[in-house]
Design brief:
Elements: H1 3-31, E1 69-74, E2 79-85, E3 90-94, E4 117-121, H2 139-153, E5 158-163, H3 166-176, E6 181-187, H4 209-220, H5 226-235, H6 249-258, H7 264-274, E7 291-296, H8 306-312, E8 318-322, H9 329-332, H10 334-346, H11 354-368, H12 371-376, H13 382-391, H14 402-414, H15 418-431, H16 436-452, H17 456-469, E9 474-476, E10 481-483, H18 486-495
Parallel strand pairs: 3-4, 3-5, 5-6, 6-7, 7-8
Antiparallel strand pairs: 1-2, 2-4, 9-10
Helix pairs in contact: 2-3, 4-5, 5-6, 13-14, 14-15, 15-16, 16-17, 17-18
Amino acid sequence: MTRRHVLITLVTAFVAVSLGWREAAFAAATKAQVPDGPRETVLDRRVHTENKVLEIPYAPPLCDTLKLEKRRVNVGDCELYCELEGQGPALVVIHGGPGATHHCFHPHFSQAARFAKVVYYDQRGCGASGYVKGQGYTVEQAVEDLDKLRAALGFDKWVVLGHSYGGIVAQCYVVEHPERVAGLLLVGAATDALHLSLQPTRQYDCLSDAERKRISDIHRAQGLTLAQRVYNAHLNGDWKRQSFYRPTNEELARGALYEWKHDEAFRRSICRQLSGEIDLRGAFENCPIPVLLLEGQWDLTWNTDKPRKLQACFPGSRLVMFERSGHSPFGDEPERFFRAVEEFMAHPPKLDLARWKAHLAAWKASRENSPDRIVRTCGWGRKSSERLAARYAATWLNQLDPGLLLKTGFALYDVKRYEDALAVFRKMLEKADEDKPSQAVAMIWQGHVLDLLNRREEAVQCYRRAATAGQGAWSFDQYGLRIGSVAAYVEKRLQQPFARLENRGDD
C-alpha cells in the first residue's frame, strides 16, 4: 500500500469515527426509551390507572449524555442557556409550552446535527435561562431575545423551527427580522396569532372516564409539585392528549423533571397576551421565505381541519403529514421527519425581501388602527371600556367576530350607550351561527340592555329565546356576575328585570 493509500485510509477512518460518535450517542440515549415488541399507541385506547401517587424515578438529563457545547449568553438584562451541536447551516429550535424547555428536543435533534448546526435554548423565564421579567414576559420580548442570541452566537442568518407555542414565537420572529431567516419550519405549531376558526380539540377523545377522573384528582391534590403532577397525570393516561406512542416510564420521568419548568409568572403573562394582542392574519402574503409545515395526523391538540387551514395562511408553503405521529413527529417518525428537514435545508434560496418588507410595512400600518386590533388590545375594566367606546364606529359591526363583539358590547354598556350596545349584541347573535352558547350570551345581554331601556316586553322575549339556545355556564368577573345555569338565570330575569351592574375592573 502506498503512502497516499495509507493517508486516504486514515482520513476515511477519522471521518467515520467523527460521525460515528454522534450515531452512537443517539443510539445510547434512545435505547432505554424504546421497549421491546410493539409499542402501545393512542389508537389502542388501553385504560391504565394507578390507585396512588407515585414518586418520580430519577433519570439524568439527556444533555449530559450527548456531546453538546453548552453556553450562557447575555442578551442584555438576562442570560439565556443554550446548547450547540453539529456542523452546517444554523438551525435554531424553539420550544413550546408556554413554559416548556429545550429538553423536549433531546435526543431526537441529534440526527439533525449531521447536516446542521443545531441551536437549542431555553426562553427567558424557562428552564435554565434567567428568570428575569424585563418589560414583562411577552412574545415580543421572546422575539428580541432570540435575535440577540443569534447575534451573540455569530450567525448572520439561520433556519427557524418553532414547535407548538414556539411556532408563534417563530412566526413573529420572521415578521420582525425577515432578513435574518433562511427558512421557517413549523412543527405542530400553535395557531393563536393567526386566529383561525377551528373545529373543537380532540385531545380528550381517547381518554376513558376513569382516566379523566384520575387525572383531575391528581391536579386537584394538595402538596404535589408541578413535576409530580405531570408525571402522575401521564402515568394515568394524560400522555394520550399529545403523544402517538405511549412513552416509557423513563421518558415520562425525564419529561416531568426537565421538560416543564418555568417562572410562575411566565405562563400567566404569555397566555394573557395570546388572548388577543397578537394578530398575524395576512402577514405572510407574498412571503418569499420558504416555509415547511410538519403535522402529526394524530396530533389531538387540534382537529383534522387544522393542517390545511394553517397552510392557507402561508401561500407557497409545503405541508408534510405524518400518519403515525402526535404532537411531536420528530420523536414518533424521526427518520422521515429529519429527511424532510434535511431536504428543506439542503438548498438555501437567494431571497429578495424588498417586496415582502414593503407589504409588511403596509400591513403593520393597517393593523395598528384596525377595529380588530383596537378591541383585542383593550382590557376589560372601566378605563379600557371608555377608551374603546370612544373609538367605536358602527362600521365595526361587520368586521368583528362574535367574541370581539361581546367585548365591544360590554364597553358600550359600561358608558351607558345602550342603543349602540343593543346593536352590537344583535350582530353578535347574527354572527354566532350554530354556536349555541354564544347565541345564549348574546340574547341574555340583549335582554339586559332592553331592560335598561325600559323595553321590558322585548327583553322577556330575548330571555326566553336564550333559555332554548344553550345550557352553558359563564362568569363575567368584571361585573361580579356568574351564570351557572341559563335556565335558572332566565327564570330569575323573567321574574325581575335586570338592574345595572358596574364594572369593577380598573384597567
